[in-house]
Amino acid sequence: MSRAPESENYNWEEWNVKIKGVTMKAFFDKVIDTILQLLEKEVSRAARADGQRLIHLVARRSVDWIIRDRSKTEQTELWVGSRRLFREDIDPKESAGFCAWTKEKISCKMTWFIAKGEIIDERTRIILSVYGILVEDGSFIQSENLLTCSLDIPPIYAFQDGIERVAKLKHILTQADVDNFENRILEGKRCWKIKYLREIHPGIRQGTLFFKVKSNVDGREFGHGEIQYDNTVVADKAHVGQGTDV
Description:
Layout: E1 10-11, E2 16-17, H1 21-48, H2 51-71, E3 78-85, E4 96-99, E5 104-111, E6 126-135, E7 141-149, E8 163-172, H3 175-178, E9 182-186, E10 189-202, E11 208-215, E12 221-228, H4 232-237, E13 239-244
Parallel strand pairs: 3-13
Antiparallel strand pairs: 1-2, 3-5, 4-5, 6-10, 7-8, 7-13, 9-10, 10-11, 11-12
């Protein structure tokens, strides 16, 4: 039986089908066009109806697809509480807070930095910007929670399920430290708007975590400490992050 003539699309020696890039692109063009058409319909429907809410819904679903895809690669994610302006009819009411300094309604969200499955070592450095308000005659103790989450896709908001606190980082600011910050009178009491950096990295001893806080202006250290923790949680079981109490 005679052998069929050589084909430019088949490698007889390796038994592989060879497909050109242009051909591969054509396979996906139709799928991408369909997705874009669906999104265009959603946006058009949003413009005709309740625009703001439906546009947000389309954007949120698109972001969900991206997050699910990224979670499979276990990219670096660790989280810390962040405050942004509250968006009516978009942010959940449970996330709402109030900034006494600016008199604005804010939403408290999470930003992840260390992912489930990632191992931290002595080279790991996490530097976080901390913001808060201290009130005259109040406590100068600053605290921040060390948190974990075993879910493949970590929560966006602190009130959602799946978050567990494993430790609390604490330090005390002195009056000399506080005097360097902007201050004003709020409701009859002097208040300070504090901003500083918190640096976190593994300690010298196995299973310890070292942290220090310092000025984000001149780098002067305000305090430091060390805690014991189970580093296998980071390596095998959970995302790790922080949430602020201030």
